[in-house]
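Q: What would this chain look like folded?
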Amino acid sequence: MPNLAALTESPPAPRHALAHAADRLGATASFLCALHCAALPFVLGALPALGLGFLADHGFERAFIVCASALAAATLGAGVARHGSRRALSLLVPGLLLLWCGGFLIDGHDTLGLHAALVALGGSGVALAHRANLRLLEAHERGGCCVRGEAAIV
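A: My prediction, written as structure tokens:
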């Protein structure tokens, strides 16, 4: 006979729902940034006609990079403090380096392809870092860590 107490209990609420939401937001925003940067050279001429010319502005892009970097540093820093693994940081640091190099150092008209590639790769790295951090947090909350910092990312 099934345990009636187990059937009537509600599942435990996530202890850190805000941290999970921030990581999901960061992963989505970073992925969209990577798509934006990869597609921008192909749709550059159509943006003003669609009223979206601001998306091609370097100021908008740089502000987005700064905000994405701050969100990533905060959420992954908090994640490392909880789960103890630096695996997500191994994706974040190169991603941010590529993102900042592409967004602030290489953004001339003659280097548009390199700029797009660096920022797209960097944004993808940041998105993957958020995803890895979410996996590490979920494994930590399930108790899937045998030793602090040894959670599976899979």
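The chain has one domain: 16-142.
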